[in-house]
Amino acid sequence: MPSAANPPHECTVFFLPGLGLDAASAGAIAAAADPRLRVVGIDLLDQGRAASVDDLADTALERIAAEADGGPFLVCGHSLGGKVAARVMARVLAGTEQVFGLAGAVLLAPSPPTPEPMPDDKRAEMLATAQGDHLSREDAAAFVAANVTAPLSTEVHEAAVDAVVRQPASAWRDWLTAGSLEDATGLVGVLDLPVVVLAGDADESLGADAQPDLIADVYPRARVEQMPGVGHLLPYETPERVAAVLAETWDAIRAAAPVVPAEWGRVIASTRVDVAVRRTLARRAIADDRGRAARSLNPAQIQTLRALASLLVPQGEGGTIDLATRIDDMLAEGGTDGWRPLGSPADPIAYARGLDAIAAVWPTGLAEQRHLIVRLITDGIAADGLGADGIRSWFEDARNDLLRMWLAHPASLARIGFDGFAVGGTAQQPAGWATIAAGGRETWEPSELGQTVVEDAA
């Protein structure tokens, strides 16, 4: 049986179902999923409460923490679950939860963080069917039929109706009168991570035409995919396409970012790590948006910096950190170290001038590129407003910046075997080391670091 340290999958998908549905609605998606993905359905409404997005997020996060293995995960939220997913992701990226590994999301006709658009007559009609302990089977069947474009197979239809009947009607009432009307934008903020939104073209309120406006302020990287001939119940209507998009999304993330090993993820998620540290590492682990507009440098300068980074900080095979984009962010946000030689311009100006000078003489051959790098280190080159000495000094700073950006990533910390970030924590007593020995490790440390050190009982 595979151990937690060596899971048989690459990524976990946590599925948050929509109103009236439960974890079982992920069944067809899980059956069609790529074997590299583990799909875990989560019951959100079994406690009969849905008045607060944060209450639902509490339920989701408790179950995610119990099922997480420390490795990367995607959130897949449908309808109500989409609104909850936004809050879950915001809390994970805030570092307040003992969870690590969020990589992105696939959202299915998601309810937005803003109040959900729903006609008053439809809201009143749904409330009228939810007055007892549970919806009647007849009303449940009508709900399912009203939210699909084409009739489901008898087996799938009955499974969906069973799910609706199982849900407490109190959760329906809470959601329709409070949860769906809640404006959670202040709690969610902007979630800058890879997101794909799937929505049917026959969905009345949360369909493909409505989604771009509903999500634009929350998910700057989101891509909306229209599902022709599909209504609102995507997990039942088109599970194979949902499964395919989950795999495509994971492939794109895996190609664009290094993976933090699961053992290291479990350390970051533990009480040994401060909230601020977990927040920083969680955000640094998100794949870079290589297609976004440059913020301080221009596109040509970004490309030159990427070419330099590939030679100065080679990252090996697999997903790599886009060091050039991260330096561009640093320059735009004023996050440099503040030091520069007397007479040198501010860092954004020095970077622009230095990169323009290098681009003007950048050769095509690899050997010549390496020779130019040596020349930049030893002699410098002429540059507008910098001079040879100035560009040599700037290039020293740039090399340090590139290395710092690489080393700041949690996958890089794992790669060099550094777990010194796990010495604060949220427990009553600050964490630290009980024993220190060459080639040894304590029981909480990743197993690759050495032999377990057991303290002498005496």
TrEMBL record:
GO MF term (any one): hydrolase activity
Transcription regulation found in the keyword field: no
Name of the protein: Alpha/beta hydrolase
UniProt domain AB hydrolase-1: residue ranges: 13-245
Species of the source: Microbacterium gawkjiense
Regions that span the bilayer: none
Recorded superkingdom: Bacteria
Keyword entries, A-Z: Hydrolase
